Amino acid sequence: MRRVGRLLAAAVALPFVVGIAAAGATSAPRATVELTFADPAIVESSGLVARDGLVVTVNDSGDTGRVFTVDRGTGETVGVTTWADDPEDVEAVAPAGPGEVWVADTGDNGEKRASVSVTRVPVGRGDRDVRGEVTSYELVYPDGPHDAETLVVEPRTGRLAIVTKGVFGGIVMLAPARLDADAPNRLQPIGNARAIATDGAFWPDGRHVVVRGYSSAAVYTWPGLELVDRFDLPDQMQGEGITVDEDGVVLISSEGAQSEVLRVRLPRRVARAVAPLPPPSPTSSAVPGDPSSTLPAAEPTPDPDISGDPDELVGGRSAWPYAVGLGFGVVMLGLLVRSLRPRG
Question: What is the pTM for the complete model shown?
Fold first, then answer.
């Protein structure tokens, strides 16, 4: 009987072992190298923006106040904007309109800063020094200091949001619609996001936002912040940058000298969720002169049933290994039961 018990336990456990092992080998989406940073001064790419055939990035804490503009086709730096002498801890960049980015001086590993700041900085081809010409805006949290490496900008309104880098989860903090350069701007918590957030970005239509960590990412609806899905990212030295370009292409960057910027092919479920909505029909019920009546509603969380599509993900991992493991286990269990029947 002891031998029978061991065989029965092995048959039950085997499908889960097979499924987990196989899933771990195929969890990350496919990616290709978009470019390699050629500039030896880019050693800790901590934020990323892709617009107009260019990529904009900043180094992590310890660098001077400068922003690098890189040709997306060659990886060569084509412009450096110097905007400050000694910022505290720059961690992110986000789109701010044609030829500009927001630079986020929001890092606070010790959670001791009374306030953080964002600055609108011109970027593009050619070097420029704009120290003393740009405006920084002070931001304060409602509940004391937080570490944050993620700054996102809602495309339809230009409103800023910060995602804190909490170990047990991040808080999405919304900035005022109009920033005041002469007084602290109080952030407002509006929801939760993934833990250890290192960067984020909106899709062009503003209906979804992605927040990444070192090895995975999560996609949320906006403004509802309902989780659409999670997915693993390709292996990187220390992945801290993510951007979505004008065409919805997702690029990610990593710290390290001459590091690669990767183009990520999203899992099908995520790609379907973030796909642009079709244009409104001529018979649309939009109210003339009312811009809010033409804005699409936030998309609800997709149905978790993903049967019939072998490339879909479950919890960020491929579903087929679990199906293979389960089927194998059922067969093994059937053979075991048959072998235990009394023979006439």
Answer: 0.76
